[in-house]
Structures are given as C-alpha cells and as structure tokens.
From TrEMBL:
One of its GO terms (biological process) is glycogen biosynthetic process. It comes from Sporomusa malonica. Residues 17-216 form the Nucleotidyl transferase domain. PANTHER family: GLUCOSE-1-PHOSPHATE ADENYLYLTRANSFERASE-RELATED, GLYCOGEN BIOSYNTHESIS PROTEIN GLGD. GO terms for molecular function: glucose-1-phosphate adenylyltransferase activity. SUPFAM superfamilies: Nucleotide-diphospho-sugar transferases, Trimeric LpxA-like enzymes. Residues 286-356 form the Glucose-1-phosphate adenylyltransferase/Bifunctional protein GlmU-like C-terminal hexapeptide domain. Keywords: Glycogen biosynthesis, Nucleotidyltransferase, Transferase. The keyword Transferase applies. InterPro entries: ADP-Glc_PPase, GlgDAde_trans, GlmU/GlgC-like_hexapep, NTP_transferase_dom, Nucleotide-diphossugar_trans, Trimer_LpxA-like_sf. Pfam families: Hexapep_GlmU, NTP_transferase. Belongs to the bacterial/plant glucose-1-phosphate adenylyltransferase family. This is Glucose-1-phosphate adenylyltransferase.
C-alpha cells in the first residue's frame, strides 16, 4: 500500500447540519464521545499503510486544524510524506448538493503531481466506518480498473432516508454502468461511499480537462460525465457504515454506538481508531449517580441519572439531573434538577437548575455551542 496516497476532500455539504456546523466543518463534528469525523478517515488510511495524506480544506477549518495539529496521533508527523494541509480558495460553509471542489483540487495539483505514489485514495469524512483498503487495492488491480468506487448496498426502503446521496448501478462484472448524483427518487440501492481509488495521473488529466470545460464538481464533472469512456468498477463494502448527512442521521447513528456489537466493529474491526490525546482523569461517578447503557468519556463528573446517552469529555451532570437519549458534548454542564430527553448539546452549553427540555426521537432538540439556558 506504499504505492497509494490519500486525499481527504472536506468539500462536503452541511446544509442539514447547520446547527452543529455553524462553527466548524463537517469533518470536525464531535462523534462517539472522544472523536471527530475526520479521525475515521485518517485512521483507515494509516491502518491500510497509506502514509502520504493530503487534506483539502474548506470553509472555517480552525477547529479542525487545532484537532489534527501535526498528525502525530495518526503517525503522520514524518520526515518523508506525512500529513499535508491543502488550502482552499473559498471561505464560508460548504453549501449545495454540488460543492465547488474542482477549483480547489486544480489549485493544489502541484502537490498531487509531486507525489511518489502511483494511485490516489480519494475520500471524504461523511462516511463513518472501519475499513482496510488492501482488498480494494487488490480488486482494482485485478479488474485493471481506471477508477474503483466503494459502495454500500441497502434495501429499497432504507435508501429513501438518505439525502444528497450518490447512487451507482453495476453489472454482473461489477462494472459501474450508471451513476446518479443526488437523485430525488433513487433507482439503485447501491450508495456510493464517497471513496474511490484512481490512478494519480488519470486524476490529474481529468481535473485539467474538466476545468478547461468549465466544470465545478469532481464527482459530476470528472467521474459521472466520463462513465462511458472510463473503466469504472464498484467495490461492495459489507461492514458497518454511518452516513452523517443531517442532524437526524447524526443523532440516530450516535445512538447506534450504544450497541456493543456496533461499537466493537466500528472501533476495532480493521484496526484502532485514533484521535487527539488529552490527558484527563477518568470519569467520576458520585454516590447518587445512576448510569445505564451510556458512553461516558474521561474527565466527566456524574452525580445524576444518565440513560441511553453519550457524554463527551469534561461533562458535568449535577445531582437530581436526568439525561435521557441525549448527546452532551465537551465541557457542557447540566445543572441540578434538569431533565433532558432527546437533546443534542454542543460544546460549552450550560443548562441551569430546574430546566426541562424534551425533543422527539425523530426530531431532537439542538442547543448550539456556548448557549446558556
């Protein structure tokens, strides 16, 4: 796998996550108590032996840069290859189903051209999974493919809940014969994972040709429009996959982690998932604490009731407070007697004594970063 470089594209639409992404890109969304979405993309690459990784930044990336720093936690602080931050020409949040990422890739072609590796593993951060790309690489070589796209197959009913998804259709030889980007009524049950393996020089040629013809979006203008001329194959992924595309999907997939089977597969199936290290004391459970079926990160202090919930680092739950079916992010404080049910609290939220907030499982309440109630 030393012949592959990784390129993480952060140009991902966050229209339906605006309450959570107002101060951060989608890649920096906190997930699973201690992690951020980009941790999974970085860990999958390094666990597969890919040590040259470029991150194509987008929007307000300050919090993301603070999180990844030099890339040391992912063994990417290297003298040769390692982690590279590729600047964006744009400012603000990424909006729309077809983000204008082509110009930013074109502006950073020098980095791609100068790389030693022959292939590029192009990925985003919306798809949360644990995968080793070795099987994808072997499949790509066996098929003599120009591009290998990873996809996850769902039943017809399940696929309707995905918004702004890219769907692919394959023949009996796994060759992609159709690609739909953000269809209103998907005709396929195979959802692209936003990950593909491609020859480095081919990507450079496609980017150059698409820019010269007024293209704006890599998936549409480089891949979908050349479907008939390129040997594009689909690789089916059979493991657990969480697609974070809306507040509801974030809430649902977070709650799925409370299942031990899902947690074990996501964090240990093909290698560990790494994140920024913070030296904090273990969670402290006071005498009156009652915690059931929950994830509680280090640094938290619990004196109330926590049920079916995820608590991030440094959360304080005071006496007689109840946190049910909720997600409480870093350094938030839940006051005495507070009742929270089906609520997402962003970082540094403070709920003062006696407040009661109740959302629905299919419509959780979101409290923005730094809010005091």
């Amino acid at each position: 796998m030393k012949n592959i470089m990784g390129l993480i594209n952060l140009h991902e639409s966050d229209d339906l996550l605006r309450e959570i992404t107002r101060y951060r890109p989608l890649a920096a969304i906190p997930f699973a108590g201690r992690y951020r979405l980009i941790d999974f993309a970085l860990s999958n690459l390094i666990n597969s032996g890919i040590t040259n990784v470029g991150i194509l930044s987008a929007g307000n990336s300050r919090s993301l840069m603070d999180h990844i720093r030099s890339g040391k936690e992912w063994d990417l602080a290297r003298k040769r290859d390692g982690l590279f931050i590729l600047p964006s020409l744009q400012t603000g949040n990424v909006q729309g189903a077809f983000p204008n990422d082509l110009a930013d890739v074109f502006a950073n072609l020098d980095y791609i051209r100068s790389s030693r590796q022959r292939f590029i593993l192009l990925t985003g951060t919306r798809m949360v999974c644990n995968i080793n790309y070795e099987a994808v690489y072997q499949f790509h070589l066996e098929k003599k493919a120009d591009i290998t796209v990873l996809y996850k197959e769902y039943s017809g009913g399940d696929i309707r809940r995905f918004t702004n998804a890219t769907m692919v259709e394959t023949d009996d030889c796994s060759r992609i014969v159709d690609m739909e980007i953000c269809p209103v009524h998907p005709r396929s049950t195979k959802m692209s994972m936003g990950m593909c393996l491609i020859d480095r020089q081919l990507l450079v040629d496609l980017i150059d040709a698409s820019m010269s013809r007024g293209g704006t979006n890599v998936a549409r203008d480089c891949f979908a429009k050349n479907l008939g001329t390129l040997k594009m194959y689909g690789f089916s992924f059979g493991g657990y996959l969480a697609r974070i595309s809306s507040v509801q999907s974030y809430f649902d997939h977070s709650r799925e982690l409370l299942s031990p089977e899902v947690w074990q597969e996501l964090f240990f199936a093909n290698g560990s998932i790494y994140t920024k290290v913070k030296d904090e004391a273990p969670a402290k459970y006071q005498q009156d604490a009652a915690v059931t079926r929950s994830l509680v990160a280090n640094g938290s202090v619990i004196a109330g009731k926590v049920e079916n919930s995820i608590l991030f680092r440094g959360v304080k739950v005071h006496k007689d407070a109840q946190v049910i079916n909720s997600i409480i992010m870093q350094k938030s404080e839940i006051g005495p007697g507070v009742v929270l049910e089906n609520v997402i609290c962003d970082k540094d939220v403070k709920i003062t004594a006696g407040k009661k907030l109740k959302g629905e499982l299919n419509h959780p309440i979101v409290i923005e970063k730094g809010t005091v109630i």
